[in-house]
Design brief:
- With about 375 residues, the chain is an alpha/beta fold.
- The protein folds into two domains: about 150 residues, Response regulator (Rossmann fold, 3-Layer(aba) Sandwich), CATH 3.40.50; about 170 residues, 3-Layer(aba) Sandwich (Rossmann fold), CATH 3.40.50.
- Helices cover about 40% and strands about 15% of the residues.
- The strands form three sheets. The chain has a seven-stranded mixed β-sheet with strand order 2-1-3-4-5-11-10, sandwiched between helices.
- A hairpin with a 4-residue loop joins strand 10 and strand 11.
- Helix 9 runs antiparallel to helix 10.
- The two termini are about 30 Å apart.
- The structure holds beta-D-galactopyranose.
- Beta-D-galactopyranose binds next to loops.
Length: about 375
């Protein structure tokens, strides 16, 4: 996709900053079948998810897929969401431990609160699994996620691909939460690709900004401030996930720049895939959460049965925890770059229903790409 250099007449930018529409991912994709009862006497496993606002993934993908995977392992999973509240996260852990869970799976809001919960569980002899996000200086026995630096590299590669033919592009980076180790890993991966281009002067970095809690609206207003502060000039945007990308695209649309400025993303949400088919977003990163949920359930089943050998046979990768100076046994799954050309892959995988991607304004693109909606 050729991106024409785009600049706005600065004079036309004397505009009050308005809240960019909230993240386009508020509506979670339709989840697979609701929770079904586990067999009587099944081993209890607790799962705490971090929030809902940062990404549609947690309630739309992770919760139903974890429920299905845990049930397939014969486990009775209690899956709750901390709604971005660290006190609630701790309270949920307390009640799950009191209810007799044999394993605790945590996708933490921050390493600090996640590590505290892991230590509390460990003190009661309950093994813990860091799900998707590693708790730095934590004590969880295992970590299941994706190769998150690779995620960032794919975001950087996607942006470079989109900027082919654009001379001296100016880039704005809107990154994830500073409390989320994944955001650091995504950034590190991006910089492996973009760093040399900044250093050589081929690209110009206008500003890079991490967004607390991945708050999509704040990401949008922050992007608008940087854009107007740069005289309305931007040629490419690194958005660390589809939720931030959606808010940024709302701002670009306000200035008539959407579809002219490539925007990255992550999570292959319905909203992100729609934005790609509309031409407003250049790419997303598909992380098959079904695989992440299944690996976690298998690991939890092994740990619930005290079978450490089986657990170690599942978690054959390792990651370093630089703050805790420890090596963590891990499952690191492979992410995939998705652009307009291979959106169909995500739908064929059953990760997102075609009905949630092929809507009125994307139906022509779906037809062109051979994505059937019936
Ligand atoms: C990260 C996660 C991403 C992203 C973000 C927002 O930790 O790995 O998928 O969506 O959180 O929730």
């Amino acid at each position: 996709m050729r991106i024409r250099r785009t600049a706005l007449a600065a004079a036309g930018l004397g505009l009050a900053l308005t809240l960019a529409a909230c993240g386009q991912n508020a509506a979670a994709p339709s989840a697979p079948p609701a929770e079904s009862a586990a067999p009587a006497g099944a081993i209890k496993v607790g799962v705490i998810l971090p929030e809902t606002e940062s990404s549609a993934r947690w309630e739309g993908f992770d919760k139903p897929l974890l429920q299905q995977a845990m049930q397939a392992e014969g486990l009775d999973a209690d899956i709750q969401n901390a709604l971005g509240d660290e006190q609630k996260f701790a309270t949920l852990a307390d009640s799950m431990i009191a209810s007799g869970v044999k394993v605790l799976v945590i996708a933490s809001i921050s390493s600090e609160s996640g590590a505290a919960v892991a230590a509390q569980a460990k003190a009661q002899g309950i093994p813990t699994i860091d799900y998707d996000r590693l708790n730095l200086n934590g004590s969880s026995d295992y970590y299941v996620s994706f190769d998150n630096e690779k995620v960032g590299e794919l975001q950087g590669q996607g942006l470079v691909q989109a900027l082919e033919g654009t001379a001296n592009p100016q880039i704005i980076e809107i990154e994830g939460a500073p409390t989320d180790n994944n955001a650091t890993l995504f950034y590190n991966g991006q910089q492996r690709v973009l760093g040399p281009k900044y250093e050589s002067g081929e690209y110009t970095l206008v500003q890079s900004q991490k967004i607390d809690d991945w708050d999509n609206q704040v990401g949008g207003t922050t992007f608008e401030q940087i854009l107007t502060g740069n005289g309305g000039r931007v040629d490419g945007v690194v958005a660390a996930n589809d939720g931030l990308a959606g808010a940024i695209i709302t701002v670009l649309t306000k200035y008539g720049l959407n579809g002219q400025v490539p925007v990255t993303g992550q999570d292959a949400t319905a909203a992100g895939l729609q934005a790609i088919l509309r031409g407003d977003q250049y790419m997303t990163v598909y992380k098959p959460i079904k695989q992440e949920a299944e690996a976690t359930a298998k690991l939890a089943a092994a740990l619930a049965n005290g079978d450490t050998a089986a657990a170690d046979a599942i978690a054959t990768d390792t990651v370093e925890d630089p703050e805790g100076n420890r090596t963590v046994k891990s499952v690191l799954l492979e992410p995939e770059l998705i652009t307009r050309d291979n959106v169909k892959k995500v739908i064929d995988d059953g990760a997102v229903p075609a009905s949630e991607v092929c809507v009125a304004e994307t139906s022509a693109a779906c037809q062109e790409l051979g994505i059937a909606t019936s």
